[in-house]
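Friendly challenge for the regulars: who can give me the structure tokens for this chain first? No prize, just bragging rights.
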Amino acid sequence: MPRRERPSYMTQTNSSPHRLPFFLMLGFCLLALALRIADLAFCTDPATGFVTEGPFWARIAVPAAGVVLSYAAAGRVNRRPRALLGPCAGLGVCLLLLTAALACGALLGVPELAAAFDPLLLISTVTALLCALWSLLWGVRAFGPLADPTRRLPGALTALPGALFFLWLMVERFAIAPASVMRLGSTLRVLSSAAALLFLAMVLRVFLTPGLPVGHAVFAGGMIAFLVCTCHELPQAVFEFWWGRSGPADLATGLAMGLWGITGLVCAWYAAGAGLPLPPDHNFYARK
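First reply, four minutes later:
Bragging rights claimed.
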């Protein structure tokens, strides 16, 4: 029986991994998580969610600094990570967990929808279920080589359910409780939705066009998603549920956003790994 040839990305010379930017950003994100938990516990009114002590700008300065540092650190990783071409089991596990959280949040909203019809809630439920199906299919796909020439690449339309969910989430959050200086929680939720959309664009590039030099963008987008979605929105969702300001469906949505941020962290780890040479037309990508 003829021996199966190994994919070209497994035989090319690798550049060394760059893990230091990952660990530096991870330390910053965990520090931001600790500060957010302390802020919610000691400087936030449980009944209203309004800040009781300290300036508003200080709460926004932390994620803003994280965005700048993420892009600065991204310049130190390889542009074409080898790990994003082969099987990504960590990415697959995160997407499967995201499927469970999205499906749980959608199903928890069904009784409320049955009791009183709400078109906004209906759209949220449908988009969450569609996104759960999307993350299930793409999560299973992540367990195999993403750049395998024998596998057919997913079509661009298959990304629509995921994009609809995160886009609708941002629109809904801004429409129901507009972001403002007085509503810090609403502001952070809108920023979390924007970060989720940014990272989704990076994930789509990994699945739809594997092999392109997107390491910098994936690292930055993943770290920003982890910082805002996991380290800011997730503790806030738990805080609001604990004090009775939100229901189980909202908690499940916050958990889904937190898992999406952890997905970003996993992709940033992949992006910080060993790299492959740029394709022959790398000067074309350098102008992008």
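The chain has a mean pLDDT of 85. The chain is about 65% helix and 0% strand. Your move, everyone else.
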